[in-house]
Design a protein that fits this description.
Elements: H1 2-9, H2 18-31, H3 36-48, H4 54-68, E1 74-75, H5 76-81, H6 83-86, H7 97-102, H8 107-116, E2 120-121, E3 130-133, E4 136-139, H9 140-156, H10 167-174, E5 180-181, E6 184-185, H11 189-198, E7 202-207, H12 213-230, E8 237-241, H13 244-259, H14 265-269, E9 276-277, H15 278-282, E10 303-306, H16 314-323, E11 329-334, H17 347-351, H18 362-372, E12 395-398, H19 409-418, H20 422-430, E13 436-440, H21 446-455, H22 464-472, H23 483-497, E14 500-504, H24 513-526, E15 541-544, E16 558-565, E17 573-580, E18 588-591, E19 599-601, E20 604-606, H25 607-610, E21 615-621, H26 632-639, E22 642-650, H27 654-660, H28 670-683
Parallel strand pairs: 2-3, 7-11, 7-12, 8-9, 8-10, 10-11, 13-22, 14-20, 14-21, 21-22
Antiparallel strand pairs: 1-4, 3-4, 5-6, 15-16, 15-19, 16-17, 17-18
Helix pairs in contact: 1-2, 2-3, 2-4, 3-4, 4-8, 9-16, 9-28, 11-12, 11-18, 12-13, 19-20, 19-26, 20-27, 22-23
The chain binds adenosine-5'-triphosphate.
Adenosine-5'-triphosphate is lined by residues 177, 190, 207, 209-215, 253, 402-403.
Family: Belongs to the RecD family.
Keywords: ATP-binding, DNA damage, DNA repair, DNA-binding, Exonuclease, Helicase, Hydrolase, Isomerase, Nuclease, Nucleotide-binding
Catalytic activity: ATP + H2O = ADP + phosphate + H(+)
Length: 685
C-alpha cells in the first residue's frame, strides 16, 4: 500500500510515464485489485508498441478486469464518473486505489490517448487488440462477438413469416382456458406471445417462473408444424438450453406438454421432446473455443428454441447465431430478471429492456389483437414504433404466473423483490404463508441451522430425506445380479436429493458454499446418515465444475456416490458416482470416482450455479455483511428456484433489504450496436 501511495502522490508519474503506469498496475495486482491476466495485457501492449501511452495501458488492464466482472467492455465515462460502480467493486470501499488515479483523468484525455494509439483501433479498422467504439473500450474478440450478435439479430428482424389462413382459429382452439384472477378474465399473454413469435424470424419471450413460456412455445411449435406438414414440408425443430440441468428440466416439462397437445399424432411426433445443451447442439471441440457448426457448416434446422436464455453469455450467443442458417427461426425464452450469465454479457436483460412497456407499433398491436382476440390494454404498455423500438416488436413479456397464482407466498415475495420493494418483501416474509419461512440466526445458532438443513420444516424437506431414501430403499444383496433394481434405486436417490437445495450467495467464508458443505457433511455424519464425510463416501453429492466430453458430463451436472454391485463381479459392492443422463429417458451415467477430476461437494451451491434448476424446497442463506455479489437479481433468482417452499436464512436482517436495492449492472454496447445494425439493414433495403 505504501509503495502505491508514493506512486500516486508524486504528481502521478503513472499518468505520464508508461513504466510508472506498469509499476502502478503491478502494485494494484499485489493489492488484489487487478488479476495477473489484466496486468499481463498491459505489458503485452508495451511489447506490441513500446510507445504505448500510459492511459492506453490503464485502459487495457481495466478492460480485461471488466470482463472478469461480466462486463463486455470498459465504459470510460461510467468508470470516470463513478469508479466504484463503473469497476464493479464494493461501493462501501471508500479507499479504492484506482479511484484516486481516475479522478485526475479527463474523459477527453483518455479518449485522445486511445485514439492516438494503433493498439486501440476504431471499430472497423484492422486487428488491433483493443477497439475503441465511442466511449467504450473493448478487447477486440468481445467487440467482434457483440457485432456478430447485433448484425445477425438485425438481419432477422425484418423477415416476417407467412402464416396459414387458419392460424387465428387454431390459436383460439389451443388456448381455450384463459387465465383468471378473482373470477375476472385476464389477458392471455401466452396466446399473444404465440402470435407474435409465429410471424417473426426472431422472437424473445420473457416471463417469471410458471408464466407459461414452455406452454406457449410448445403450442406455437404445434401450430407451425401442423401448417408445415399440411404443406408437405415438415419443419426441422431443435430445442436447446445452456446447461444440462436446464435441458433436463425442460425435456421433462416439454414431454408432458407435447403428450397433452390436441393435435394429430403425426404433428405430435414431429415436435421434439428432448432438449439438448447448446454445447452439444453446436458440437463442442475439446480443448478449443470453437464448435463443429459455424457459418461455414451451419446447423441443419428450421426452428431453434432456446430456453433459460438469461444464462447465455455473449460469446455463446455469437457462436450460436453464426451457426444458425439465415432462413431459420430463433425463439429465445427466459426470465429477464434473473441473474445474467457467469461469463461476460447480460444478453437477455439487454434485449428485453423494453419488454415491460411493450412499445408495440400501432399496426402490430392491431394485428396482435385481431389474431389473438385479446385486448392489449395492460396499464404498463406504452405506444411505440418499429423505427424507434425495432426489437420491442419481437419481444413479449408473459405477465401471469400459473404456478404462483394469487395467494402464493413465493410468487408475492418474488414480485416484491423484483420491484425493488424491500419493505413489502419483508412484510410478506413476516406474514404467515405456508410456503415461506425465515430462519434468523442469532450469533452462532448452529443447532437451528443444522436442524433446518437436515430435517427441513413441516412439509419442506431437508438433506436427511435423500439419505433415508438411500438407506431404506437400497435393493437387497440377493438382487445384485439385477441391474434394473439398482438403477431404479439410484434414480430414486437422485430424485430425493432434488427435493431440497441450500443456496449461498458466496463461495468462501463462514457463509459461503465451502464452509457450509463441510458443516453439513459433519452434521449428517454425526446424525449417522453418512459413514464418512471425507474423500469419496457413499451419499456424497457432487457437482461437475468443468465439461468432460470423454465422460459426457457437463459443468453443473450433479451426481451422487453410491455403493453398487460391480458390473463384472456383482457380489462385490463398489463405490460409483451416478449422474442423470439428462436425455429425457431417465438414463443414468455411472462413473468411477477416480475418473472425476473436476467435481465439488454440493450440499450448498451458489445461486449462480443454481440457475436453470428448481427444487421443491430451497433455502437461501445470506451473509451477515453486504457484498458486491448481493443484488436484487441474486435474491430473485434464489427465491424463484423454489417450487413449493422457500426459506430465507439470515443473520443480519438489513442485508436482505440492502441487497434488494442493488442492481446488477453490466456494461455493453449491444443495444447501440443493434440500433446501428438495424439502420444499416434498412438502408441496404
Ligand atoms: N394456458 C395454460 N393452461 C393450463 N395450464 C397452463 C397454461 N400455461 C401454463 N400452465 C401450467 O402452468 C405451469 C407452468 O407453465 P410452464 O412450464 O409453461 O411455465 P414456464 O414459464 O415455462 O415455467 P418455468 O419458470 O419453469 O420455466 C405448468 O404446470 C403448466 O402446465
Amino acid at each position: 500500500m505504501s509503495q502505491q501511495l508514493s506512486l500516486l502522490s508524486a504528481h502521478d508519474p503513472a499518468l505520464h510515464d508508461r513504466q510508472a503506469m506498469l509499476a502502478l498496475l503491478g502494485s494494484w495486482q499485489g493489492e488484489g485489485w487487478l488479476r495477473v491476466l489484466d496486468v499481463a495485457l498491459a505489458r503485452f501492449c508495451v511489447e506490441l508498441d513500446p510507445h504505448s501511452p500510459p492511459l492506453l495501458l490503464l485502459g487495457a488492464a481495466l478492460s480485461s478486469l471488466q470482463l472478469g466482472h461480466g462486463h463486455v467492455c470498459l465504459d470510460l465515462a461510467a468508470c470516470l464518473a463513478e469508479p466504484g460502480l463503473g469497476l464493479s467493486v464494493n461501493p462501501s470501499a471508500s479507499t479504492l486505489p484506482p479511484a484516486r488515479l481516475l479522478q485526475q483523468i479527463s474523459l477527453d484525455d483518455w479518449l485522445s490517448s486511445l485514439q492516438q494509439s494503433p493498439l486501440a483501433g476504431t471499430a472497423e479498422a484492422g486487428n488491433s487488440p483493443l477497439v475503441l467504439d465511442g466511449q467504450r473500450l473493448y478487447l477486440r474478440r468481445y467487440w467482434n462477438y457483440e457485432q456478430t450478435v447485433a448484425e445477425q439479430i438485425a438481419a432477422r428482424l425484418p423477415r416476417q413469416q407467412a402464416l396459414p389462413a387458419t392460424f387465428s382459429m387454431r390459436l383460439q382452439e389451443l388456448f381455450s382456458s384463459p387465465p383468471e384472477q378473482h373470477g375476472k378474465r385476464l389477458c392471455d399473454w401466452q396466446k399473444v406471445a404465440c402470435a407474435l413469435a409465429a410471424r417473426s424470424a426472431f422472437s424473445l419471450i420473457t416471463g417469471g417462473p410458471g408464466t407459461g413460456k414452455t406452454t406457449s412455445v410448445v403450442r406455437l411449435l404445434a401450430l407451425l408444424q401442423e401448417a408445415a406438414l399440411q404443406a408437405g414440408q415438415p419443419l426441422r425443430i431443435q430445442l436447446a438450453a445452456p446447461t444440462g440441468k436446464a435441458a433436463a428440466r425442460l425435456s421433462e416439462s416439454i414431454g408432458a406438454q407435447v403428450a397433452a397437445l390436441p393435435v394429430s399424432e403425426a404433428v405430435r411426433e414431429l415436435i421434439p421432446r428432448v432438449v439438448t445443451t447448446l454445447h452439444r447442439l453446436l458440437g463442442s471441440l475439446p480443448d478449443t473455443r470453437h464448435f463443429r457448426h459455424h457459418a461455414g457448416n451451419p446447423l441443419a434446422l428450421d426452428v431453434l428454441v432456446v430456453d433459460e436464455a438469461s444464462m447465455i453469455d455473449l460469446e455463446m450467443m455469437a457462436c450460436l447465431l453464426d451457426a444458425l442458417p439465415a432462413t431459420a427461426r430463433l425463439i429465445l425464452l427466459g426470465d429477464k430478471d434473473q441473474l445474467a450469465s457467469v461469463e461476460a454479457g447480460a444478453l437477455l436483460g439487454d434485449l428485453c429492456r423494453d419488454a415491460e412497456h411493450g412499445y408495440y407499433a400501432a399496426d402490430l398491436q392491431h394485428w396482435l389483437e385481431q389474431v389473438s382476440g385479446e385486448r392489449l390494454d395492460d396499464p404498463q404498455l406504452r405506444p411505440g414504433s418499429a423505427q424507434a423500438q425495432p426489437l420491442a416488436q419481437h419481444t413479449l413479456m408473459l405477465r401471469h404466473s400459473r404456478r404462483f397464482a394469487g395467494h402464493s407466498g413465493i410468487g408475492q415475495l418474488a414480485r416484491a423483490v423484483n420491484q425493488g420493494n424491500a419493505a413489502d418483501a419483508r412484510q410478506i416474509l413476516a406474514s404467515p404463508a405456508a410456503d415461506l419461512q425465515v430462519l434468523r440466526l442469532h450469533g452462532s445458532q448452529q443447532q437451528a441451522l443444522a436442524q433446518l438443513l437436515l430435517d427441513g420444516h413441516g412439509a419442506a424437506l431437508g438433506y436427511a430425506h435423500y439419505l433415508q431414501v438411500m438407506q431404506q430403499q437400497r435393493p437387497s444383496v440377493e438382487t445384485a445380479d439385477q441391474p434394473s433394481a439398482w438403477l431404479h434405486w439410484a434414480r430414486q436417490v437422485l430424485a430425493a436429493f432434488e427435493q431440497f437445495q441450500l443456496l449461498c450467495a458466496l463461495r468462501q467464508g463462514p457463509w459461503g458454499v465451502e464452509g457450509l458443505n463441510t458443516q453439513i457433511a459433519a452434521a449428517l455424519l454425526q446424525r449417522g446418515l453418512l459413514d464418512s464425510d471425507q474423500g469419496w463416501y457413499e451419499g456424497r453429492p457432487v457437482m461437475v465444475t468443468r465439461n468432460d466430453y470423454n465422460l459426457g458430463l457437463m459443468n453443473g451436472d450433479i451426481g451422487i456416490a453410491l455403493c453398487m454391485p460391480d458390473s463384472t463381479t456383482p457380489s462385490r459392492q463398489v463405490l460409483r458416482v451416478v449422474f442423470p443422463r439428462n436425455d429425457g429417458q431417465q438414463g443414468l451415467r455411472i462413473v468411477l470416482p477416480s475418473r472425476l477430476s473436476a467435481v465439488e461437494t454440493v450440499y450448498a451451491m451458489t445461486v449462480h450455479k443454481s440457475q436453470g434448476s428448481e427444487f421443491a424446497h430451497c433455502a437461501l442463506l445470506l451473509p451477515d455483511t453486504l457484498n458486491p455479489v448481493l443484488t436484487r437479481e441474486l435474491i430473485y433468482t434464489g427465491i424463484t428456484r423454489a417450487r413449493e417452499h422457500f426459506t430465507l436464512i439470515e443473520s443480519h436482517p438489513a442485508v436482505f433489504e440492502q441487497a434488494i436495492q442493488r442492481r446488477v449492472q453490466r456494461h455493453s454496447g449491444l443495444l447501440d450496436a443493434l440500433r446501428q445494425a438495424t439502420a444499416a439493414t434498412i438502408a441496404a433495403g
